[in-house]
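Lab notebook, design round three. We kept the backbone fixed and only want residue identities now. Task for the bench partner: fill in a sequence for the structure below.
Input C-alpha cells:
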C-alpha cells in the first residue's frame, strides 16, 4: 500500500526569538503526510507552540527550511504567506482567539471571507457549511447569532473548531484545545474533531499534555525525542594561524669597557 503524499517537510530547523543569543528550538527532520493525524507532546517550554507557528508560516526559522505543500514558507513574501495560510491552514488556538464582537456564525465564516479557495471547497455554500459544522459541534442553534464573547469556554471551543475546519483546509493545527474541558466533553470533542478531519482529508497536528488522548491518533510525536535525534553540528572551522612576527635583528654586543688602571 502506497504512502500518502507529504504535506509538510522540515529540515535542519533552528529558531531563536529576536534578540536571543540561543536557539529555543532545533529540529533536524520531520515529515507530515496528507490525511494523517499526529499527537505532539512534550514538557512545558520545550517549543511545541513555537513549532506550530513555524509549521503555519507565522514564524520563520533562522536556519533550515519548512516546506508546506512543496513551498518553503521563508521563500514567500509576507502577503503571500498570509494568503497561503488562509487558504490551506486551519488553527484552533489555545485561547480560541474568536472575535468577541462577531456572532458565532460570522466567526466560523471568517476563513471563507478571507479566502475564496476555502469558500469554494465547502460542501454547498459557505453559509450551509458553517451551519452544518456548528450543528455537528452540537452548539444549539439559538446561540449561532449571539456574539462569541457571551459564550462559555466549552461553547467558544466548539466555534473555534468549526472555524478551523470550514473549507476543508489541508492542515489543521490544534494547540491544547481540550485543556479547559472535563472528561465527557473532551471525549465528545475529540470524536467530532477527528471525524471532521478524516472526512475532509485534513492533516491534524494536535498538541496536548494529556497523553491519554494519544490513542486517538495515527502517530505520536515526542518533541524531546525528535530533538534528541539531532546529529552533531558541523566541525568548527580551524582558525587561521597568525603570521609570525619577524625577529628583531640582534643588537651588537657592546665592547667591554677596560678597567680603569689602578692608581699608581
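Proposed sequence:
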Amino acid at each position: 500500500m502506497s504512502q500518502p503524499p507529504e504535506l509538510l517537510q522540515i529540515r535542519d530547523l533552528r529558531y531563536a526569538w529576536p534578540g536571543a543569543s540561543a536557539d529555543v528550538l532545533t529540529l533536524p527532520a520531520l515529515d507530515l503526510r496528507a490525511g494523517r493525524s499526529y499527537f505532539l507532546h512534550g514538557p512545558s517550554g520545550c517549543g511545541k507552540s513555537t513549532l506550530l507557528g513555524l509549521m503555519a508560516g507565522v514564524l520563520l526559522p533562522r536556519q533550515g527550511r519548512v516546506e508546506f505543500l512543496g513551498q518553503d514558507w521563508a521563500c514567500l513574501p509576507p502577503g503571500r504567506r498570509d494568503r497561503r495560510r488562509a487558504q490551506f491552514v486551519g488553527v484552533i488556538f489555545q485561547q480560541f482567539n474568536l472575535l468577541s464582537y462577531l456572532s458565532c456564525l460570522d466567526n466560523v465564516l471568517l476563513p471563507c471571507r478571507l479566502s475564496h479557495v476555502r469558500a469554494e471547497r465547502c460542501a454547498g455554500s459557505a453559509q450551509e457549511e458553517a451551519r452544518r459544522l456548528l450543528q455537528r459541534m452540537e452548539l444549539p442553534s439559538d446561540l449561532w447569532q449571539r456574539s462569541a464573547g457571551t459564550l462559555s469556554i466549552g461553547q467558544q471551543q466548539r466555534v473555534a473548531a468549526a472555524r478551523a475546519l470550514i473549507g476543508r483546509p489541508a492542515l489543521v493545527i490544534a494547540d491544547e484545545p481540550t485543556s479547559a474541558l472535563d472528561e465527557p466533553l473532551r471525549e465528545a470533542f475529540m470524536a467530532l474533531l477527528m471525524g471532521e478531519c478524516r472526512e475532509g482529508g485534513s492533516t491534524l497536528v494536535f498538541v496536548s499534555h494529556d497523553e491519554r488522548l494519544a490513542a486517538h491518533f495515527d502517530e505520536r510525536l515526542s518533541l524531546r525525542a525528535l530533538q534528541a535525534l539531532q546529529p552533531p553540528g558541523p566541525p568548527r572551522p580551524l582558525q587561521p594561524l597568525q603570521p609570525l612576527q619577524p625577529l628583531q635583528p640582534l643588537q651588537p654586543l657592546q665592547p667591554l669597557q677596560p678597567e680603569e688602571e689602578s692608581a699608581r
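Keep this in mind before ordering anything: The CA atoms of residues 235 and 245 lie 29 Å apart.
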